[in-house]
Sequence to fold (520 residues):
Amino acid sequence: MDLIDDPREGLNSPEFSVTEISGAIKQVIEGEFGHVRIRGEVGRVSRPRSGHVYLDLKDDKSVISGVIWKGVTARLETQPEEGMEVVATGRVTTFGGQSKYQIVIEDIKPAGMGALMALLEKRKKALAAEGLFDQGRKRPLPYLPDVIGVVTSPSGAVIRDILHRLRDRFPRKVLIWPVAVQGARCAPEVARAIAGFNALTPGGAMPRPDLLIVARGGGSVEDLWGFNEEIVARVAAASEIPLISAVGHETDTTLIDYVSDRRAPTPTAAAELAVPVRHELAAWLDSQEARMRVLLSQGLSRRDQRLRDMARALPRADTLLDGPRQRLDRAGEKLEPALISGVQRRRVRLADVSGSLRPSTLRQRVGQERRRLNEVAARLTPALDRLIAARRDRFESRARGFRPAALERDRARKADAFAALVGRLSDAGQRQTRGWRQRIDALDRLRETLSYKATLARGYAVVRGDGEVVTGKAAAQKAARLEIEFADGRVTVGAAGTGPTGKATSRKSGEKPPEQGSLF
Fold:
């Protein structure tokens, strides 16, 4: 219905539908307030899954609803937060579905420096409460990184200062991730650059940096605001690669400075923190090498002197062998008389025992035992018959109560027990036999050690003259024949042992000597 249509008969005003009046109001409001700027405090903020943002703008007396469409939200430099004082630019319209008016926001900015600083303080307190500023979570910087990643603008003076300082101090490989360092694209690009460097695979075609530098020159708070965004602070805090922030001048402070592992006052200072001075490092290495050589030389000298002192305190090797050599000589002197005495005692004992073993006595004893055996045998047959009959009766009575299956089981059980017993006895016998064999081997080695044969192998010899051991020069001159025993045989010297050719005869070492000799 047109607004100037005539009213119906009997009515003073025209009749409108709800949609008609709502549309008329919408046209009036949009025509009157086509483009406005509203200053106020952000109240309730809602972010549904559609991507649009719904909020309230309020002052001390009134509230107006606002909406930011999804496409506009992505372009905003500052995202609205509750409690922020802002200046919103847009157009006022109505929403007929709920009979209310609202502003469709096309741009929103903080209302002055005070609002920006208040927002910054609010974000700082929230991130600090989460522990992102704690010193305990900050990682140490690598002493000499192989690859350094730089997040900055490729066209500014910052990257040239960093590369120049790195080239002067210690040239390293540098990967540059170009980003916008101010404006609406700054925060998302810086966040993507930090996350991208961390996503690189170590040892891959594109090397992963060992250290990151996020750098920008100085500027106003608005210019540096991209580095105060929460997304940048969180990505920097989550970086697995140590990160140096070099944003602005020394007096400029942003949120990334608090969450980074190290803050540099300028981009040039960040390059100085990243690498040491090569010449200073080489000089330090030379000094350390010189100190190491001096300390090594001193240590060797002290140990050499200590070894000499200890060597002077030790006795000579010949002196250490004097005592054992004398004990061996005394034992050798006592061995022959002890053997002769033992043989004599055993010969006397054998004579005493063999004296009672006469043939007549043995024959008489055998006759007595045979007669006794015959008498016992005569009584043994009837007794055996009675015993066999009694045991047969008892066996038959028991056999009637026995069953073959039970007997078989009992036999098998006892056979198993017997086999186990035989196995244990065999094992015990083998262990005992091994023990005896080891003991015999040990005694045999001891015998070889104490025997004079081992002494002969070291160059000694046993000299016998006329069947007796010669212990001196005079006895050797008196002997008509000398027999000299070496380790590999014996040699006879003298008239009795000399053949037609006049050569001395010899005897193998395996032949038994007539007497045991002394060692010389």
In short: Residues 496-520 have pLDDT under 50 and may be disordered.
